[in-house]
Each structure stands twice: as C-alpha cells, then as structure tokens.
Amino acid sequence: MPAVGTLTKLSDAVTGVRKVVSQPVSGVVVGPLPVGTGKTLPMSNNGVRSMACLLLLSALAGGCGSGSGSGSDAPAPSPAGGSPSVPTSTAPVSSTPPAPSPGAAANGTDLAACEDGDCEVYASGVVTIPLDQRFGFTRFEVAHEPTGRSSVFGEDPVNGNLHAYVNSTGEISANGITMTVISTDATGAVLRFTPRAE
Predict the structure, then answer these.
(1) pTM for the whole structure
(2) Which of 27, 166, 171, 198 could bridge 180 with an S-S bond, Cβ 3.0-4.6 Å?
(3) What residues contact 100, with CB distance under 8 A and at least 6 apart?
(4) How many whole angstroms from its chain centre is CA 63?
(5) Which helix (H) or strand (E) holds 6?
(6) The predicted structure's pLDDT at residue 192
C-alpha cells in the first residue's frame, strides 16, 4: 500500500480508539450471569483498553504488511536479447611457407635454370649449382642435412673459397649473388638465387 494510504488507515484507527476509550463503561461484572438470559456482558475499563490496543495493532500490521515490492531485494532485470554476448576473437592467418618439395619450387629440380643466378630450385642431399663464371665461383655446392641445415661451399680462386651455412631459413650473399633458403625440413630445402642488381 502506498505511504499516504497507510497513514490514513493509522489515523482512522487512532481516532476510533480514542472514541472507545472516552465512552463511559456501564458497569463491571462481579459474577456470572444466569445461563439463557440473553444479556450482553458489559466490559470493564481494562477490556475496553485491550480492545483499543487490538484495533491499533491490526491497523499497524495491515500498513506494514503491504508494499510495492520495489526494494533493493527485487531481482535485477535480465539484459535485453537473452544471455550476454561472448566476445570472439579471430585467429591470425599463418604465414608459414609450404613444406619444401620439388613442386614448391618455381624451377623444381632444374638446377641448370640457375646459370644466370636467377632461379628457385629444390635441393636434397648434395647438389652443384652451375653458376655463370661472372660470379667468380668455379664450383658452388649446397649440402642439405637432415637437421634442416644447408651448408655452402664456393670455390673462388681469386677471392678465396666460401664456407657458410644456414641453420634453418635465411640467406648468404657473396660475389654479387644471394642464396636464400625459403623453406627446409629433414628431406630437402627450397633455394632461391638472386643476382645483385647492376
């Protein structure tokens, strides 16, 4: 019940109690009346006050027991649209190169395509790259190991021999040519040769 209604009810109850208490009592019962007389027992002053108190307590109970139910214990409304949304994430696209194989190299196993220093070949075991003499190597060998390591030997009678290696992927540059290991595994490696720009 709203607060104004509760206050009105309490005020009416108090006014009624005052009227009852202010009325004179006609008499006091001193003994039992004969049965079947049809008379009403008069109430003593204590009885009137008891009745007034009961009326007041009844009014108070009625006012306290009602309410709008909008207190802090009311359940919180559920979010619109049902259950809350769960944030999602997008996995990054892998940039891992394809596994080394003859098909993964532009020139496959055609080592002769590397004569001009511009090729992409698949190498397994020990291979000899037939580079043009203008690069200064009389012999250029690449040895692939099962660990994925690529060892390079370049025979250069003028500047000295080249001994180098790439443990996984990477590049080696010498005499105006760069060899890049694109991908490697236990079986072989994809090698790219690029001449230095003039």
Answers:
(1) 0.52
(2) 171
(3) 122, 182, 183, 184, 185, 187, 188, 189, 190
(4) 50
(5) helix 3-22
(6) 98
Degrees to nearest 5, angle at CA 156 with 154 and 158: 160
The full DSSP string for 12-47 is HHHHHHHHHHHSPP-----SPPPTT--PPPPPPHHH
DSSP reduced 3-state for 189? strand
- Which of these, 177, 182, 184, 143, lies nearest to 163 by C-alpha position? 143
Beta bridge partners of 174: 177
Report the DSSP pairing between strands 170-174 and 177-184. antiparallel
In the sheet where 139-144 sits, what is the strand order? 126-128, 139-144, 150-155, 162-166
Q: Which helix (H) or strand (E) holds 183?
A: strand 177-184
Q: What letter represents residue 33's amino acid?
A: L
- What is the C-alpha separation between 107 and 50, in angstroms, rounded? 113
Cα first-last separation, the chain: 96
Question: What's the confidence (pLDDT) of residue 156?
Answer: 97
Tell me the C-alpha distance between 58 and 61, whole Å: 5
pLDDT tens readout for residues 93-140:
445 667 888 889 999 999 999 999 999 999 999 999 999 999 999 999
pLDDT at residue 26, as a whole number: 47
